[in-house]
């Protein structure tokens, strides 16, 4: 059994790339940058939070990141810490067999529901952890994530989706049927890319 140890960076470590970005406009005709004086928010600070999900295998780590507005990334890091704590000592294969269910598991934490999960900070944290767990899944299979998804069977493809926001438009069964019908053209298209 391979278990996951999720290490969340401290707020200071999370500011891996933080830079000040006054509102700049690229003038394509002249090829130079011009500050826009009429923009309301000229004091932007863009940055991102970053998480590495470590496993018992030192060669297997998943990475996730999400851009933020830059101020108070420590709050996002705290949300990430709360979300990843739900993964501690979990078997990776149990998480990977149904990534949609894994997303639901992260999204429905009993305490997190009071401050999210469909709200800004928690939603950003969820995105970071979801990206990192999917990256970890792909790395565990020795493939880039796009290739892992392309190689999914229709059933795996359906299980990888989070159904919370689309279940009113289609069912898993309908999506599986459509995916089975679309699988052949997709394989042919990817085969052409590999050449």
From TrEMBL:
Cofactor(s) this protein requires: Mg(2+)
Domain of life: Eukaryota
A molecular function GO annotation: magnesium ion binding
Keywords: Magnesium, Metal-binding
GO terms (BP aspect): carbohydrate catabolic process
SUPFAM superfamilies named in the record: Enolase N-terminal domain-like
DNA damage found in the keyword field: no
Entry-linked InterPro entries: Enolase-like_N, RHMD-like
Protein name, as recorded: Enolase N-terminal domain-like protein
Protein species of origin: Macrolepiota fuliginosa MF-IS2
